[in-house]
Design goal:
The chain is mainly alpha-helical. It has one domain. The chain contains ten helices and two strands. The chain is globular.
Length: about 240
């Protein structure tokens, strides 16, 4: 699939999520209960959170649309001006639209993964409110693991930029360090995704916690890799 097509896939998925919400809307009462206590490894009793129907069915798609629009705006000239505010000391090419064009397919895949993760939460909410809380509990770790694998597979193809990746001063200024960092970072993401899916299948209550912990561990791996070869102060 060409990059020009792939970048619109998240918008299509958001549209499908809206359709799913509209279909569910007519079958749900004005106040619905979210029963996702099974996402946690400890007993939360029969706790449920009552929320307005319109909020439960519209919040996540709205957030996903805003996130997608922000990602799409980042590689533009206006996004470059915003990037310079946050990355004042970084090389100019880091925020350049031309730089994003060099890894357009990779960028589009990362955007897709982020939107998929949000819509996975939305799917879990719909499942919970329509009487399938056990399905909702399984959806979230499965989608989280899938998104980690998806992002991890393309992470090594990222180029220095102000939006995605391990964006330290050293990695942004050293292309070789950026590449080695993101090879390690991507591998950690893939392993984290596989572990999250495996635990989510065998023990759903531990799936989300496993995903969060392994994601944090992946970020630590990325930071450690980005500091490899750092000179020791005073030497």
């Amino acid at each position: 699939m060409a990059s020009v097509d792939r970048k619109w896939v998240p918008l299509v998925l958001i549209g499908l999520a809206v359709v799913a919400s509209l279909l569910a809307y007519r079958w749900l009462p004005p106040i619905v209960e979210l029963r996702l206590g099974g996402l946690l490894p400890f007993d939360t009793g029969d706790a449920s959170d009552p929320v307005p129907r319109w909020l439960a069915l519209s919040l996540i798609p709205a957030i996903a649309l805003v996130v997608w629009a922000a990602f799409r705006a980042a590689p533009t000239a206006r996004g470059q001006r915003v990037g310079r505010v946050f990355m004042r000391g970084a090389p100019d090419e880091v925020t350049s639209p031309a730089q994003f064009a060099r890894f357009g397919k990779t960028y589009d895949t990362i955007v897709l993964a982020v939107v998929l993760l949000l819509l996975g939460v939305h799917g879990a909410i719909i499942a919970s409110t329509t009487g399938y809380p056990a399905l909702g509990v399984r959806i979230i770790p499965m989608v989280l693991g899938l998104c980690l694998i998806l992002m991890g597979n393309v992470m090594p193809r990222l180029r220095p930029n102000w939006v995605a990746g391990v964006r330290t001063k050293r990695t942004l200024e050293d292309p070789q360090l950026w590449r080695t960092t993101h090879r390690a970072f991507g591998t950690a993401f893939v392993l984290s995704g596989i572990l999250t899916i495996a635990v989510g299948l065998v023990a759903p209550r531990f799936g989300l916690v496993t995903g969060i912990v392994s994601l944090a561990a992946s970020c630590i791996v990325g930071l450690v890799a980005s500091n490899r070869g750092r000179p020791i102060p005073g030497t």
